[in-house]
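User: Last request for today: this protein with zinc ion, please.
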Amino acid sequence: MEHTFQSPRPIPDFLRKDVVSKLAYVDESIAQVTLDDHDTLHCHLRTELTPDQRQILDGKMQQVIDLLVTSTRQPMIKIIENHLDRPVPGRTDPMPQLLETGQLVHTGDGMFSLGPLVAGLCRYFENRFFQLALSQGAGIHRFPSMIPASFLEKIQYFKNFPHSLSFAAHLRTDLNTIERFATETRCQDGVLHLPKDSFSGIRHLLAPTVCHNYYLFLANRTLPHPLAMATALGTCYRYESINMHSLERLWNFTMWEVIFVGTANLVKEALLRVGQEASLLLQEWGLAYRLENANDPFFIREFGMQTGFQNIYDLKYEYRARLPFKEGTLAVGSRNYHMDFFGRQMQIQLPDHTTAHSGCIGFGLERLAFAFLAQYGIDPNQWPESIRTALFPTP
Ligand code: AMP
Ligand code: ZN
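Assistant: Here's the final one, the structure of the complex with zinc ion:
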């Protein structure tokens, strides 16, 4: 079933990708959506819709386009490092080969189990990132992969990213509820049908990022030093709807982070210093990538008024790796400065009793492995020697 919608207003080039990705969340009937050069949206529908339902769908699509077009200004792209043209041998999408060879198994929506090739790459990158952070003085941490609802509410996450949330639910601690669940629950077409009111109130969610748990760790404290530095690996969850087909966009993924909490100057200095070391690692691994400023809708809303638009684009930088098979790029990591936002919300104080600033650098390991395989292929003989020998030492 197809449905087309002609946008009544022109969609600027810089917003085309955002429009398509946001449309993944407007209606459950949409299985796939593409945008052509004439600003017409082509939707592939899961179910047939009545004319009334189609009209409602059009209204929702228009609402998203209106919001994005009227509230977003064209970002000024600032390129900090450009290694995008570095020659790399890979030309093809690694996904089909990884699936065919059993190196990857798709186990659910946005979920893949990784075999030794991809898991080995993730582990290698993770080890090197940890070595880097530890050598810079970061303390290693391990955080839960859940986060209290009260924390996410406090940092206004519900207002800004409701579509991507994942909830941790459990049954009510009530014998009758548990027995009814045990006898009546059925899974049909992958969907759980369970007795009404089985779940207790939701108090926790699955963590969308690693550093939140560090701000919670430091909450209501006065730090003994003007800079605290932590590093951790964590499982993160972001529901990305119909956009989840490959390692590019997962529901459940692993992020490595190094996190800085301290004075504005020390945080900014550490972000730059450790960021440059991280860049050297990407270069050593032979990756074709670019480091450029990025817009994060969360911070645009939070700081847009306070700082003027220009500064917003100095808060987030993304490492975008080349994907030769689609002549595009993919964000594999980011460097973020949050000013005193988390310090204020979580009451983290510095030794002089001023509010702490914070920043973090994070890399998605599955994405990094995916970009590496897109650039070098799945045959280790084609890989840069240092990575090949680290993963497959010859006896
Ligand atoms: P962000 O906090 O949005 O800057 O994300 C940090 C990094 O996490 C990104 O650069 C990606 O490498 C990774 N990441 C974010 N979302 C996803 C996702 N849905 N699937 C896989 N990796 C992701
Ligand atoms: Zn972070």
